[in-house]
Design brief:
globular, binds magnesium ion, VC0802-like, alpha/beta, binds aspartic acid, 2 domains, Carbamate kinase, eight-stranded mixed beta sheet, six-stranded antiparallel beta sheet
Length: about 425
């Protein structure tokens, strides 16, 4: 017998039929003797609607009341799933964040979980009752409902799994796992059986939108084995109740016996490049450039600076999210006198393509192979950054698909 957390996202609980289907997935695990805590999202689209209503009521509004409104979507699905479970003979009750309680910090609208008291949940689970928990919400230090930021029910699920010492946290979604790359671009993309926390973190932050990034960070820190699987597979399909069901396990790298050099290729078109030309090469310049951007809450990602030939002027290139491109340019234009650059150039028509794999730590030449392959396709590289387990290149956006496909075959990731 094990203790499981089963989390169901918005598309999995989008209507009453799907909620009944979810109830059957839960019953399958209960029938196999497991203790089960379920975490649910709001019905798909519900949270967007609630957010829109708060904005319509007043564009600038009290974040505590925003939380009161947007947390309600999960309250609805937790109650409906508890009803659907009871209807098929499963002992279940719903829990709101404040009833457990899930304590958060004071950042309404984007709160972080501070502490979860799992004692009462564990007690009920041991009595054979299924706990159906509203995701995305907790209770702040002010004793008011707080929400965790969009996509936050993944984080609820992982945090609860850690708090009750679950053997695994199953994230049921509308895809059947994590792929080597986006299957819409590369039809030969393969589902990964296992991926390490670190690799998944890179993939998630690069736009493989299966999981909220924060949930992966938390899973890594608390070592929660997290399993991505589909709620649209037949409830009693092959292997569904096995110890290794169809899906992708996100786990510690020690659990991955056959380490691939490259595990996946990720991409993000949400990038913009800014280059400052002829910047004085002297101490403090970087601080003058990146200080104001940080103050404006603009996230800078890739940074490339040249060494000047004669020690006087250099170029500085970096990327920001597409959505912040115009704002970043304005901030820098304002800082021109202080920074002393001579020209500012940029493009929002760029994309970042990344090669990810823990095996890179012990293999040389991975980057050189990538550059050669991209060059052979006539793809120009604007900037490069690397970490221990990742190489990212910035290229012109129209070449994204070609670059992803090229790298995917280069590292032998193509399936049949
Ligand atoms: N319902 C919330 C959202 O749409 C939380 C979640 O689904 O994870 O962002
Ligand atoms: Mg989600």
């Amino acid at each position: 017998m094990s203790r499981l957390v089963m989390k169901f996202g918005g598309t999995s609980v989008a209507d009453i039929d799907r909620i009944k289907n979810v109830a059957r997935h839960v019953k399958r695990e209960v029938d196999h003797g497991h203790q089960v805590a379920v975490v649910v999202s709001a019905m798909s689209g519900a949270t967007n609607q609630l957010v829109a209503w708060t904005r319509a009521a007043a564009p600038l509004h009290d974040a505590r009341e925003y939380d009161t409104v947007v947390a309600s979507g999960e309250q609805v699905t937790s109650g409906l799933l508890a009803i659907a479970l009871q209807e098929i003979g499963v002992n279940a009750r719903s829990w709101q964040g404040w009833q457990i309680p899930i304590r958060t910090d004071a950042s309404h609208g984007a709160a972080r979980i501070a502490d979860i008291d799992g004692a009462r949940l564990v007690e009920r689970l041991a009595q054979g009752q299924v706990a159906v928990i509203a995701g995305f919400q907790g209770i702040g230090p002010d004793n008011r409902i707080a929400t965790l930021g969009r996509g936050g029910s993944d984080t609820s699920a992982v945090a609860i799994a850690a708090a009750i010492g679950a053997d695994r946290c199953d994230i049921y979604t509308d895809v059947d796992g994590v792929y080597t790359t986006d299957p819409r671009i590369v039809p030969k993309a393969r589902r990964l059986d296992k991926v390490s926390f670190e690799e998944m973190l890179e993939m998630a932050s690069l736009g493989a939108k299966v999981l909220q990034v924060r949930s992966v960070e938390l899973a890594m820190v608390r070592n929660v084995r997290t399993f991505v699987r589909s709620s649209f597979e037949p409830v009693d399909g092959p292997g569904m109740a096995d110890e290794n069901p169809p899906g992708t396990l996100i786990c510690d790298e020690d659990e991955i016996v056959e380490k691939q050099v490259v595990t996946g290729i990720a991409y993000s078109k949400d990038e913009a490049q800014i280059s400052l030309r002829r910047v004085p090469d002297k101490p403090g310049v970087a601080a003058h450039v990146f200080g104001p951007l940080a103050e404006a809450n603009i996230n800078v990602d890739m940074i490339v600076q040249n060494i000047s030939e004669d020690g006087s002027l250099t170029d500085l290139t970096f990327t920001v999210p597409n959505a912040d491109y115009e704002r970043a340019r304005k901030v820098l234009e304002k800082a021109q006198a202080e920074v002393g650059y001579q020209a500012i150039q940029g493009s929002s028509d760029v994309a970042k393509v990344s090669v990810i794999g823990i095996g890179m730590r012990s293999h040389a030449g991975v980057a050189a192979d990538a550059f050669k392959a991209l060059a052979s396709k006539g793809i120009n590289i604007r900037a490069i950054t690397t970490s221990e387990i990742k190489i990212s290149v910035l290229i012109d956006a129209p070449y994204t698909e070609l670059a992803v496909r090229t790298l995917h075959s280069l590292y032998g990731l193509d399936g049949k």
